[in-house]
Amino acid sequence: MTRIANYAMSEKERQNLSQLVVNYELVRSLPEIWQQAASRFGDRIALHAPHLKPEVKVTYAQLYDQIRCFASALQVLGIQVGDRIAFFSDNSPRWIVADQGMMLAGAVNAVRSSQAEKEELFFLASNSGAIALVVEDNATLKLLRDRLSDLPLRFIALLSDETPPTDLNIKVLNYSQLMELGANHPLQAVERNLDDLATLIYTSGTTGKPKGAMLSHGNLLHQVTTLGSVVQPKPGDRVLSILPTWHAYERSAEYFLLSQGCTQIYTSIRTIKKDLAKFKPQFMVSVPRIWESVYEGIQKQFKEQPASRQKLIHFFLDASQNYIAARRIVQGMDLLRPQPAVGERIAALLKMVAFAPLHALGEKIVYKKVRTAVTGGEFRQAISGGGSLAKHIDDFFEIVGVEVLVGYGLTETSPVTNARRPWRNLRGSSGQPIPGTEIRIVDPETRQPLPQGKRGLVLIRGPQVMQGYYQNPEATQKAIDSNGWFDSGDLGWVTAQNDLVLTGRAKDTIVLTNGENIEPQPIEDACLRSPLVGQIMLVGQDQKSIGALVIPNLEALEPWLAGKGLRLNLPEEVRSPDSPLVKDPALLAELNRREIIDALRPELNREVQNRPGYRIDDRIGPIRLILEPFSIENGLLTQTLKVRRNVVMERYQGMINEMFA
């Protein structure tokens, strides 16, 4: 791995990296971080799990000691350098102890959520060649036990303190037993280097079987040594952790933030609102759905206000929308007008000055209260990845003063390749490359480079690009060319200032019968601006027009229809996503009455037409309303909350066929 200093960086980035509390640039393997962190931060809290009973707090000194004990125990149990360990567990302080204990012992872990499907977990354990298994608890082990004999396992470890089962032909230890074993034996030092394999992270499996991305210590350390170009944490800063810890995005961010002495606080969807207010974090790593949920909660609170108060709030929001739009032009931060003419800039400046007092008044009366209620009042930045942030969400949080920095990357790139910076938060983009990263836009067919501003396939090259797919040379060759360029599968273009703007997924592209290519994500994002829409997925491959499967927001849809003289006859029970009624044909027929669909279609197309770059082929034709939400539990969302389009297509193929009949 070439040292980061050899890559061209902006002066701002160079200054930020030089100001990091600890510089790990010369570290050769990831676990070396924790000894330095323990020495530097000692009794400072590294990990805090307030919702465990009892709650858990782990200092940096304790974290390093626990990592060493875990690693020593693995060595006593026979783990050697390069051995693979299947690791199926979810967020907790013990996760990072186990993860780094495995690496410190020289092992390679293959990670996944304990909530993943049984067949997927067995595939990962088998494909990775795991000789040991670490699972969250007895419940996870019970899920797997009927086929454990198919795996060449030497032992199993629980991350819980439950009594291990005794009726297996494999040695099973709980967490306390494992840590006691490690405490009684000295750790044998192993030498690991940047090019050595650290972990296997399997792709989410939206299409086909998961592939194991081989990430080296150098891949992961690239993130640790460069994410400081995006955010600059200080020792003791609080970070709220909500995403799956095993996922590349959350994982690399945790490594970086902990390397700088932050305190990581574990939260969940159920507790995040209370935790934001209680713990007042400075940072949070998130995906767009988190901010959509926060936005929806704020809008719901707005609607509960008296009519006069609602009118005042919307007045300020409209004024501030004009203010930020003008400010972007003045600052050269408007994606569609990056280099405005002198006249445009002057006009925007006058508009900005005109709306500034109203924006300031909105800040005093509305936005400051919203910001304090949402973030606790000490928030600096959220780093959002895993998908683009819808325009209205981006606009709203800019208005209320919550800094959301959108980034981009893939599991195969460890994952971050691009990110917006606090000093260049270009809305609508995924930001500039992080140090050491090259982005190239090429023609999807010819693979020839395209000029700046032209849309094409996004290729990535840099120290964070994976070594390849484990035991899958054919897929590796397809993904990474002979010059080291990784095919992201994403479509996009690059601004004159090197900001990456994504426009859709190449493999998600819907091709209509007229030959037009439709990128579903931007259109779906536009439709989500409507309060009537909860979730949406476009369909229409090889059809004359695109169609949409829509999960409506019934709380908004029913009164909206009533205002048009239409009534939905739905029982109260249907509002529960677990209700069997969500699949009742009679209720779906009621929901999809022609007059309801005909009323809804213009509302969606109004939002679609208001998005930049609208084309006539973007108009939505047939629509079908469904009641079953897309979720992780029913297999329609990945662990990072992306729609499994192929799974949705299979589940609703009959309805889709009927839509276009």
Provide a count of the helices.
Answer: 21
Tally of discrete structural domains: 3
- The helix content is 25-40%
Q: Return residue spans where pLDDT drops below 50 for at least 5 consecutive residues.
A: 1-7
Tell me what portion of residues adopts beta-strand conformation.
15-25%
Pfam family, one: AMP-binding
Organism: Oscillatoriales cyanobacterium SpSt-418
GO molecular function: long-chain fatty acid [acyl-carrier-protein] ligase activity
InterPro entries: AMP-binding_CS, AMP-dep_synth/lig_dom, ANL_N_sf, Chloroplast_AMP-bd_Enzymes
Record the SSE blueprint:
Layout: H1 11-18, H2 32-41, E1 45-49, E2 56-59, H3 60-76, E3 84-88, H4 93-104, E4 108-112, H5 118-128, E5 132-135, H6 138-144, E6 155-158, E7 171-173, H7 175-183, E8 197-202, E9 212-216, H8 217-226, E10 238-241, H9 248-259, E11 263-266, H10 272-279, E12 283-286, H11 288-303, H12 307-331, H13 342-375, E13 381-384, H14 391-400, E14 404-409, E15 416-419, E16 432-433, E17 438-442, E18 456-461, E19 468-469, H15 473-479, E20 486-494, E21 500-505, E22 510-511, E23 517-518, H16 520-527, E24 533-539, E25 546-552, H17 554-562, H18 585-591, H19 594-609, E26 620-625, H20 645-651, H21 653-659
Parallel strand pairs: 1-11, 3-4, 3-5, 4-8, 5-6, 6-7, 10-11, 10-12, 12-13, 13-14, 25-26
Antiparallel strand pairs: 1-2, 8-9, 9-19, 14-15, 15-16, 17-18, 18-20, 20-21, 22-23, 24-25
Helix pairs in contact: 2-3, 3-4, 3-7, 8-9, 12-13, 12-14, 16-19
Brief summary of the model shown:
The protein has 661 residues and is α/β, with parallel strands linked by helices.
